[in-house]
Each structure stands twice: as C-alpha cells, then as structure tokens.
C-alpha cells in the first residue's frame, strides 16, 4: 500500500503545473525530497500550524524550494493522518547544507521550543530522495 501511495504522490507532484516555477532551475537535475511526518496523538493541528505560520518561510530563507504539501486522511497505519510534502534542491550537497543551516537557525529553534512546549509534535519522519527520470515530461511554466 505504501508503494502505491508513494507512486501516486510522485505522479501528482510531477504533474503539478507550478512545479517548473518552484523547482530548481533544471528540474531534470534537481533532487526532490519527499518527507512524511507522523504527528503525535492530538498534534496534527499544531503541526499544520507550525508549517503554515513558520516552517515554509524558514525553508525558503535557507534555499529550500517548497513544491507541495498534503494532509493524508487517518489510516490504521497512521491514525492521526500524516503531513506529506516535497522540497526541491539543486543537488544533494545543497540539500544537506540547507538543512544544516535551517536546523541551526535561532528563529527555527525558538519556533520549535514554543510549539513543542506541550510535547513533541512528530513521532516519526520518513524521507525519500528522488531525481526525475529521463522520460518524465517536462512541465511548462503556467501563465
């Protein structure tokens, strides 16, 4: 089931009309990271608020390109649902540098401290690194 879910998600991302505008300058050479967050019990709303109010802006500040975000409906595997998103980077090295700078950012550390005062928001994170296949359609920018 997970592989079917991931395949559908990748299809949705690569078909998004705005992908060419949001991805690295060369979508064929970019590294895409699919991240899946499992919220702690009762923390989905707080996790979404943290992304909405802080995280996306801080990702941009550190060179990460926000491609798309989803909320998965609750399942037996993830009773709280999951937050799923894709970021794009020019390279894996750029990704590592961006995350290092993001993690050390005093503004991010303050956001985490405030948002997790009542306990951690996330119990598990999965990460999948992807590059576009050479046969993947190139997406033209939307007008």
How are the SSEs ordered, and which strands pair?
Blueprint: H1 2-15, H2 19-22, E1 31-39, H3 44-61, E2 65-72, E3 82-89, H4 92-104, H5 106-115, E4 122-131
Protein name: NIPSNAP family protein
Organism: Sphingomonas psychrotolerans
Domain NIPSNAP: 32-137
Please give a structural write-up.
Helix 3 (44-61) packs antiparallel against helix 5. With 143 residues, the chain is α+β, with helices and mostly antiparallel strands. It has a 4-stranded antiparallel β-sheet with strand order 2-3-1-4. It has helices at residues 2-15, 19-22, 44-61, 92-104, 106-115, and strands at residues 31-39, 65-72, 82-89, 122-131. The protein has a single domain (2-131), classed as Alpha-Beta Plaits. The relative contact order is 0.26. It has 5 helices and 4 strands. Pfam families: NIPSNAP (PF07978). Residues 32-137 form the NIPSNAP domain.
Keywords:
143 residues; globular; Alpha-Beta Plaits; alpha+beta; 5 helices; 4-stranded antiparallel sheet; single chain
């Amino acid at each position: 089931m997970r592989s079917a879910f991931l395949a559908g998600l990748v299809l949705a991302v690569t078909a998004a009309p705005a992908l060419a505008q949001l991805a690295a300058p060369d979508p064929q050479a970019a590294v895409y990271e699919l991240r899946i967050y499992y919220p702690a019990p009762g923390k989905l709303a707080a996790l979404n608020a943290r992304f909405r109010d802080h995280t996306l802006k801080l990702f941009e500040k550190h060179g990460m390109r926000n491609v798309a975000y989803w909320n998965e409906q609750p399942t037996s595997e993830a009773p709280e649902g999951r937050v799923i998103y894709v970021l794009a980077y020019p390279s894996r090295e750029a990704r590592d540098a961006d995350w290092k700078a993001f993690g050390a950012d005093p503004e991010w550390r303050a956001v985490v401290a405030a948002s997790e005062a009542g306990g951690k928001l996330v119990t598990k994170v999965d990460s999948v690194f992807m590059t576009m296949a050479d046969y993947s359609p190139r997406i033209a920018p939307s007008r």
